[in-house]
Specification:
about 270 residues, Rossmann fold, two-stranded parallel sheet
């Protein structure tokens, strides 16, 4: 049975932005930025408290905000979330923000942790994009914004499979952009620097010393610049000029060695 799409006061069908991992950190900043631009949102999170955040956005910005509760490390949840979104909403923007990382010696990393990182960063990004693709393409002018990392440009020890998973996000985004550039779908990828999205992450950045603090950016700045440049059709969005300069000027072998030492110091002081 088909479900009627959401409409505005004039009877026109609303077009929504979907944001994954929207209950905290950068995802929450994306949701706030979109709501402030009067863009209706569908927020995807495994946190049931996302309903309260949606209500807060509706009250603060007087724009529609809906939610879907899903654990995007589970394939069945990805597919059911996409099915629900496709049935209820017209989607013109997908922000694949949900991700998982951390710092730990690889030999001490549990298999389930590795599976979850790959599942969220690689599988969820790919499958959700695939399942929402017909919805995006029928809008005539639509966007995908994938959240990567500066780690995608540099292999780093003690980061488990996180840098490799973000390198996938970059390659996936660039390939998707090339495939659909003439079909009204613009694909962008953002590579933020370090962000203090939680107290735990703030402490981790402090342990990285001067370099960690130098590359620090706020989630609000990342969200604001990312959305603006996505709508301008930017291919790769680089928020922190220091991180970008470092990744372009310093040879990869040296970057890997330096950053591995920084992260090792963080791990050893846990």
């Amino acid at each position: 049975m088909s479900i009627a799409k959401q409409t505005d006061s004039s009877g026109a069908t609303k077009k929504y932005a979907v944001v994954t991992g929207a209950s905290r950190g950068l995802g929450r900043a994306f949701a706030e930025e979109l709501a402030a631009r009067n863009i209706p949102t569908v927020l995807v999170s495994s946190n049931h408290g996302i309903s309260e955040f949606c209500e807060q956005l509706r009250q603060t910005y007087q724009t529609d905000s809906e939610y879907v509760v899903a654990d995007l490390t589970r394939e069945e949840d990805i597919l059911s979330a996409a099915e629900e979104i496709n049935a209820k909403y017209e989607v013109f923007l997908l922000v694949n923000n949900a991700g998982l990382g951390g710092s730990q010696a690889f030999e001490n990393t549990e298999v389930e942790r590795i599976r979850r990182i790959i599942g969220l960063n690689v599988v969820a990004t790919s499958l959700l994009t695939r399942q929402l693709l017909p919805n995006l393409l029928r809008q005539g002018n639509s966007f995908v914004l994938n959240v990567s990392s500066m780690a995608a440009h540099t292999p780093i020890g003690y980061k488990m499979v996180y840098p490799a998973s973000k390198a996938f996000v970059n390659a996936f985004s660039f390939g998707l952009r090339a495939e659909f550039k003439n079909r009204g779908l613009s694909v962008s990828v953002v590579c933020p620097g370090a962000m203090a999205t939680s107290e735990g992450i703030r402490k981790r950045i402090e342990k990285q010393g001067f370099f960690g603090k130098l590359t620090l950016v706020s989630p609000e700045k990342v969200a604001r610049k990312s959305i603006s440049q996505t709508f301008r059709g930017k291919r790769e969005i680089l928020v922190n000029p220091v991180s970008y300069f470092f990744s372009q000027i310093v040879p990869e072998r040296i970057r890997t060695s330096l950053l591995t030492k920084v992260v090792r110091r963080e791990v050893e002081t846990k």
